[in-house]
Design goal:
212 residues; alpha/beta; 6-stranded mixed β-sheet; Rossmann fold
Length: 212
């Protein structure tokens, strides 16, 4: 009887699990952005190269959603010519000032909160955590999201426990020495902008699959 009650409770709890709530896009739709300015990220990780890697992955999903994205590296160079070298410094500027400077409809700020590889002898877990905020050209925040991704490389199975143990140790050491963050970063961006519950509405330049 107890087992039946426990099973019923599990089924009830499983049935109560709901999908994440879709954000309110009222402000986003009112702003109706056609072009997006992506500025260098704020880097709270210990990897000084993280902002550059992240910046290189942001244009594609936004363009796929149908928006004109200002060339990110050109934007970075122009901002540096104006004396803005760090993401923290740039994102302290009013979004409307940045939008006005480049003539964009919206500005995207991203913060890197995690970009690390945690080593545990036989496994290394690579993790990224990003916070995204988008502002209209008048400075109104129109969209925000947080996304975390983690990956633990698997050395595979040979059927020999000793060989598998050595392979796992080697795989973990390699991942620790040279973690590959780009696949996780692309996956995080894809989830946030395109596939997940926070996915932004299609832009005016969205190409339907049959039109490609």
């Amino acid at each position: 009887m107890k087992n039946l009650l426990l099973l019923a409770g599990i089924i009830f709890l499983s049935g109560c699990v709901t999908a994440p709530e879709r954000p309110d896009f009222t402000a986003y739709n009112a702003a109706a952005p056609r072009s997006i300015l992506v500025v260098p990220a704020v880097n709270n990780s210990l990897d000084v190269d993280a902002p550059s890697y992240l910046l290189s992955t942001l244009s594609k999903p936004l363009a796929e959603k149908g928006y004109y994205v200002f060339p990110v590296h050109t934007v970075k160079v122009i901002l540096e010519m104006e004396g803005f070298y760090e993401g923290q410094q740039i994102q302290q500027q009013p979004p409307q000032a940045l939008a006005n400077q480049f003539g964009s409809d919206a500005v995207l700020f991203v913060t890197i909160d995690r970009w690390d590889a945690q080593y545990a002898v036989l496994a290394t877990t690579v993790t990224v955590l990003f916070k995204y905020r988008m502002f209209a050209k008048d400075g109104t925040e129109i969209w925000a999201a947080t996304q975390s991704m983690a990956y633990t490389p698997d050395g595979g199975s040979s059927g020999n426990p000793l060989v598998d143990l050595v392979a796992a140790a080697v795989t973990a050491a390699v991942a620790r020495a040279a973690p590959n963050y780009l696949p996780l970063t692309r996956q995080a961006n894809q989830e946030v902008f395109v596939q997940g519950h926070t996915a932004i509405p299609d832009g005016p330049y969205k190409i339907a699959p049959g039109q490609r």
